[in-house]
């Protein structure tokens, strides 16, 4: 695989970053995941805008290649022959000469920029999307700025592991009795034809797929309600699903052991997935 590190395209085995990189030592970095379908980047502009916002919120310098990111994404897709898959991009505050809690002087330390591709043939035709996934609920103990897409992913990873141990696929995070989001996706329920999802705030990541899916839903005259919901309400909903750049619209058929609706993929999630894939291609 050819990857991109600080201005260079390299074989992945030759790519190196410093052990003093603040991404490595302090999770002082932000990232984006953009999907590729039919060799085309999906929602690139949205991901770039959110990256810029994440950098701003953390007072992090833009990498010098910022204006060339579209071209770099395209070149990596081409060099690696990606038809379906993802591009991962990470910017960290760079590698000062030593470990220090104080941010390094931006005049002396440049941000580290890393991009790599993930080849995922069959992403759009995923068997999981036919069957739906099962989730457990766990307490949301992440920090208070989940709107910033940082690389602090330890708790989301632990959540996935807890789900796996319970024989499930993912976890929904719950704060003050209400679902915030999934470990790496936004969460939705459907009741009486209404699509219900938590409103945007610092409590959740402002999903790029969420924005697109809600736009398509409204264009298709489906009713969207942005409000919080409990696990109990979700268990009694007609349908549930999640969205993310890596799963598009993914139906959820079980929450904490309770089947949602008929326990199978419902019509709203199915339709939204089809619309999303059609519109994106
Ligand atoms: N995750 N919420 C969280 C906590 C996420 O990590 C993600 C994305 C989303 C969905 O955002 P988007 O639609 O922009 O992908 C919501 C990515 C895919 C990841 O970590 O791999």
From TrEMBL:
EC number of the protein: 2.6.1.42
Similarity section: Belongs to the class-IV pyridoxal-phosphate-dependent aminotransferase family.
NCBIfam families attached to this UniProt entry: PRK06680.1
InterPro entries: Aminotrans_IV, Aminotrans_IV_CS, Aminotransferase-like, BCAT-like_C, BCAT-like_N, Class-IV_PLP-Dep_Aminotrnsfr
Known role: Acts on leucine, isoleucine and valine.
Single GO MF descriptor: branched-chain-amino-acid transaminase activity
Named cofactor requirement(s): pyridoxal 5'-phosphate
Keywords of the record: Amino-acid biosynthesis, Aminotransferase, Branched-chain amino acid biosynthesis, Pyridoxal phosphate, Transferase
Catalytic activity field: L-valine + 2-oxoglutarate = 3-methyl-2-oxobutanoate + L-glutamate; L-isoleucine + 2-oxoglutarate = (S)-3-methyl-2-oxopentanoate + L-glutamate; L-leucine + 2-oxoglutarate = 4-methyl-2-oxopentanoate + L-glutamate
Domain of life: Bacteria
Designated name of the protein: Probable branched-chain-amino-acid aminotransferase
Gene Ontology CC annotations of this record: cytosol
Pfam families linked: Aminotran_4 (PF01063)
This protein's pathway: Amino-acid biosynthesis; L-valine biosynthesis; L-valine from pyruvate: step 4/4; Amino-acid biosynthesis; L-isoleucine biosynthesis; L-isoleucine from 2-oxobutanoate: step 4/4; Amino-acid biosynthesis; L-leucine biosynthesis; L-leucine from 3-methyl-2-oxobutanoate: step 4/4
Protein's UniProt keywords contain Amino-acid biosynthesis: yes
Coiled coil: none
Gene: dat
GO BP terms, alphabetized: amino acid biosynthetic process; branched-chain amino acid biosynthetic process
């Amino acid at each position: 695989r050819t990857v991109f590190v600080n201005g260079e395209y390299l074989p992945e085995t030759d790519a190196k970053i410093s052990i003093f990189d603040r991404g490595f030592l302090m999770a002082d970095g932000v990232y984006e995941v953009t999907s590729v379908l039919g060799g085309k980047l999906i929602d690139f502009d949205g991901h770039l805008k959110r990256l810029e916002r994440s950098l701003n919120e953390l007072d992090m310098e833009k990498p010098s290649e910022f204006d060339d990111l579209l071209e770099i994404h395209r070149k990596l897709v081409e060099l690696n022959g990606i038809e379906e898959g993802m591009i991962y991009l990470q910017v960290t505050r760079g590698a000062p000469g030593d470990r220090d809690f104080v941010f390094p002087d931006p005049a002396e330390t440049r941000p580290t920029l890393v991009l790599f591709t993930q080849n995922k043939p069959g992403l759009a035709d995923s068997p999981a999307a036919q069957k739906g996934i099962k989730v457990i609920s766990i307490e949301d103990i992440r920090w208070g700025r989940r709107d910033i897409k940082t690389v602090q992913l330890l708790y989301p990873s632990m959540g996935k592991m807890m789900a796996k141990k319970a024989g499930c696929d993912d976890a929904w995070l719950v704060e003050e009795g209400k679902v915030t989001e999934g470990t790496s996706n936004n969460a939705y329920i459907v009741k009486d034809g209404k699509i219900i999802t938590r409103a945007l705030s610092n409590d959740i990541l402002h999903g790029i797929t969420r924005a697109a899916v809600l736009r398509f839903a409204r264009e298709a005259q489906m009713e969207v309600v942005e409000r919080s919901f409990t696990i109990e309400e979700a268990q009694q909903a007609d349908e549930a699903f999640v969205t993310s750049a890596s799963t598009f619209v993914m139906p959820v058929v079980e929450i904490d052991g309770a089947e949602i609706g008929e326990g199978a993929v419902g019509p709203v999630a199915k339709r939204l997935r089809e619309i999303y894939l059609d519109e994106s291609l």
